[in-house]
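pasting for the record
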Amino acid sequence: MDALVQELNTKLRQWQPDIAQQVRQCLAEIIELADQDALDILRSRVVEQEVLDLIDEPETW
């Protein structure tokens, strides 16, 4: 776990501020859901929207 935290700290310093903020927000959401034992029943709305957006994108071959 310490290695994971160390890698996350490194990445948060390297990423653009908006990306780092999104990651922080997602992690906070995951921690909150884990505290409520609700991880297995809820999907991230952001991920769900990203999948829908990918489906709607035209193919570029």
